[in-house]
Design goal:
Layout lengths: L2 H14 L5 H13 L4 H5 L7 H15 L4 H5 L1 E4 L2 E4 L12 H10 L5 E5 L5 H10 L2 E6 L2 H14 L2 E6 L10 E6 L14 H4 L4 H4 L7 H10 L3 E10 L5 H9 L3 E8 L5 E8 L2
Parallel strand pairs: 3-4, 3-6, 4-5, 6-7
Antiparallel strand pairs: 1-2, 7-9, 8-9
Helix pairs in contact: 1-2, 2-4, 6-7
Bound molecules: S-adenosylmethionine.
The site of S-adenosylmethionine has 22 residues, from helix 7, strand 4 and helix 10.
Length: about 280
């Protein structure tokens, strides 16, 4: 079978299983099977698939039709201009989380030390270490996630040390900037999530307790022992979490508490300055 026919057949199969963007997905999976760039599909439509390429392509199509996210099949996600390795041990980094980097670059451009709590693939820690030229520490409760994050730090560069612990309980020292995108989906909402998320992404990366905001309070209190005066705490928040997280910041030594909105106009990033 040649590439033109393989693409056609893959697109039909994916469309039949109501996979979003079937043509684009078929292209990505076929490129992954061929270990080639997308331009090859169009410059060599007559290329005949080898048996191995065909077997791989078929398996990837099957996995995607079962709901496995494309990124877990190709093991990569482009994020803030870099390719991050992702495995089912880590959340696939989302475009919305790039707003955390944007806000950090806006308010804490001079930060020399950064702590990322719940690092997953390491997307925030590695990106901030590189963009700010800072030294980062990143934590996660999942050792498997930290292995992926370490892989990304090694591949992309950036000075990041990893600590396996509950939130920041295993971290000492003082930081100019603390970022966190903790799990924030209320447990009762698990059934309402897309199949790709519910059945394939790690629940430890998704579920934030009964209300979805349980972890924020603990992070806010730990941050007070880890931020330098004048340092910034920047959170990603869920669309329902703003009031509860703001409430958690209202009693403490925090100033300039501000919300940033994503492209859909939803509250997405909350920042606060440590002012003891
Ligand atoms: C929503 S994911 C965010 C991952 C990554 N920072 C990103 O933005 O793509 C949350 C991460 O927090 C980690 N996590 C969950 N509970 C934790 C805890 N108590 N202590 C440390 N990490 C935790 C999960 O393993 C997961 O990697």
């Amino acid at each position: 079978m040649d590439l033109r026919a393989a693409l056609h057949q893959g697109t039909d199969l994916l469309a039949g299983s109501t996979t979003p963007e079937p043509r684009l997905t078929a292209e990505v999976l076929l490129c992954h099977a061929l270990k080639r760039e997308r331009v090859f599909l169009y410059s060599h439509p007559e290329h005949e698939l080898s048996t191995v390429e065909w077997i791989h392509y078929g398996r990837y199509l099957y996995e995607r039709m079962q709901g496995k996210p494309t990124q877990y099949i190709t093991r990569t996600q482009e994020w803030y201009g870099r390719n991050f390795r992702v495995t089912p041990a880590v959340l696939i980094p989302r475009p919305e989380t790039e707003h955390v980097v944007e806000i950090a670059l806006e308010v804490a451009r001079g930060a020399r030390t950064v702590l990322d709590i719940g690092t997953g693939s390491g997307a925030l820690a590695v990106t901030l270490a590189l963009e700010l030229g800072a030294r980062a520490v990143a934590t996660d409760v999942s050792l498997e996630a930290l292995r992926v994050a370490q892989w990304n730090a090694d591949a992309l560069g950036g000075r990041v040390d990893f600590v396996c612990c509950d939130l920041a309980s295993g971290v000492s020292g003082f930081f100019d900037l603390i970022v966190s995108n903790p799990p924030y989906i209320p447990e009762r909402e698990i059934a309402t999530l897309q199949r790709e998320v519910r059945d394939f992404e790690p629940h430890v990366a998704l579920l934030g307790g009964e209300t979805g905001t349980e972890l924020y309070g603990r992070i806010i209190s730990q941050a007070q022992g880890l931020l330098r005066p004048g340092g910034w705490l920047i959170f990603e928040i869920g669309y329902q979490g703003e009031a509860a997280v703001r409430q958690g910041l209202s009693d403490g030594p925090w100033s300039r508490v501000e919300t940033g909105y994503d492209l859909a106009g939803l509250p997405r990033v909350l920042r606060a300055r440590y002012a003891p």
